[in-house]
């Protein structure tokens, strides 16, 4: 329960337990067509006043070859309508195909500089992946090239709630 007595805003995946391991077909280490599939996500108890949701997925243990640990962005998704209750498995790159209330959702560029989900492929496993969902009081207008940095700047002062799912690779 949240401090105000309401149910807590939560982000879950039917395929990945909190602090659980990311299954291989969601990674770049999967086989053939069972590779780099975006994982299914569901959320509950969206805060009142939410107009849209935004999602950022990062490897929070990624080392910078020139120094410290710098989060590596794997997926950015913006303008998810508050009425949508989740993203189905394999959603990345198919928002127009899925259609309906999903059609206005926009995927931003990850740190490979391409839009959509890109699963992990690491020299060493054990990294933590943070799926962070932001509940926002407005729709975002970020232009054609959406990035995590543009998103973080645009949502300042508009976040009405955050939910986090942690996973391991």
C-alpha geometry = globular
Assigned CATH class: Alpha Beta
What profile does the largest beta sheet have? Answer: 6 strands, mixed
**What is the name of the CATH superfamily?**
PEBP-like
CATH architecture: Alpha-Beta Complex
Write down the domain tally: 1
pLDDT < 50 runs, ≥5 residues: none
Number of helices: 2
Instruction: Please report the distance between the alpha carbons of the first and last residues.
Output: 29 Å
Class derived from helix and strand content:
mainly beta
Lateral strand order in the biggest sheet: 2-9-8-4-5-7
Q: List how many beta strands DSSP finds.
A: 9
**CATH overall fold name:** Phosphatidylethanolamine-binding Protein
* DSSP helix fraction: under 10%
C-alpha Rg (nearest Å): 15 Å
Protein name: UPF0098 protein
InterPro entries: PEBP, PEBP-like_sf, YbhB_YbcL/LppC-like
Pfam families: PBP (PF01161)
Brief write-up:
The chain is mainly beta. It contains two helices and nine strands; from the N terminus they run ββββββαββαβ.
Describe, in plain words, how this protein is organized in 3D.
Helices cover 7% and strands 30% of the residues. The protein has a single domain (10-168), classed as Phosphatidylethanolamine-binding Protein (Alpha-Beta Complex). The strands form 2 sheets. A 6-stranded mixed beta sheet has the order 2-9-8-4-5-7, covered by helices on one side. It is mainly beta and 169 residues long.
């Amino acid at each position: 329960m949240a401090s105000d007595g309401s149910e807590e805003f939560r982000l879950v995946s039917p395929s990945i337990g909190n602090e659980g391991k990311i299954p291989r077909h969601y990674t770049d280490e999967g086989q053939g067509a069972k590779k780099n599939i975006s994982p299914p996500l569901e959320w509950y108890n969206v805060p009142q006043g939410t107009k849209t949701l935004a999602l950022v997925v990062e490897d929070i243990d990624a080392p910078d070859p020139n120094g410290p640990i710098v989060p590596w962005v794997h997926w950015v998704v913006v303008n998810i309508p508050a009425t949508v209750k989740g993203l189905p498995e394999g959603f990345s790159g198919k928002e127009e195909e899925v259609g309906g209330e999903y059609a206005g959702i926009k995927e931003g560029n990850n740190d490979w500089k391409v839009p959509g989900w890109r699963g992990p492929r690491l020299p060493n496993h054990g990294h933590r992946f943070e799926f962070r969902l932001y509940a926002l009081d407005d729709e975002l207008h970020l232009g054609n090239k959406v990035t995590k940095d543009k998103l973080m700047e645009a949502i300042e002062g508009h976040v009405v709630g955050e939910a986090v799912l942690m996973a391991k690779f």
